[in-house]
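Hi V.,

You were right to ask for the full record rather than a summary. Here it is.
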Amino acid sequence: MKTPALAALALVAALGACDRKPAEAPQAPAAPTAPAAPAPAARPLAFDQSDDAAKVALRLPAEIARFPALHALLYDREVAGLKAFAAKAQADRKASDGSYPWRAYGRQSQWFLSADAAPLVALRALWFEDTGGAHPNHGGSTLLWNTASNSEIQTKALFRPDADMKVLDKAICDAVGAAKSHREGAVPLNDMFACPKWSETVLVLTPSTTPGKIGGLTAIIDPYVVGPYAEGDYEVTVPASTFQALLAPAYAGAFGGAPKSPGNPDGTLSVTMDVVK
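Predicted structure:
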């Protein structure tokens, strides 16, 4: 038989056991946080390389520095292309049999900011290339950048997948025909020099009369497409109202108003390249 003192001790021990919480399992150490990806190193706005085989050059607009990832992508891509061109020139020079004096090759690209209307930034370029043929070649390029995803997009992404693009084709064709009527000696559109489809042109975003919007699309058409080489390039602008219904929902809101400039009546280019001597 337990004494009162022993019974009291047993009761205290039992109550203590009821209040005791099970030991917590040891926590695993937290996984180390991965370091944030470093921002792209700032690239220059120019690149030049010259030797006895070729001279190459690149010029970028100062505004591109506001978009470091875009700046890095375009600079690296363009410089890689120029270096490959220079390497080909060096190989051609070494393979030359010496029948004619070697004339150094040349290639240059110059880029311009054409529009900035969130989430789109657009650049356009002029380029020329001389490899010793009858005449140098030249043309235009474009690049579209989505600032929301921080990535390049293709021009076709601007439009709905089911859009009837014949609307834009006709608008470009009509604009080319009008430009030819203002250009002395221009060859009329015909079976040989027919209207191009929109996808066969270089489409550039056009600033709007409404701040922060895109007012239209400018189609750059290289020589030989709608006329002989001597006729030159064409640049024609189509207002956003013409193709608004074709735009993808993700980008439709970036367009509005009218083009800030309709371009030159004869379709000549609205920008010129600063040729590097």
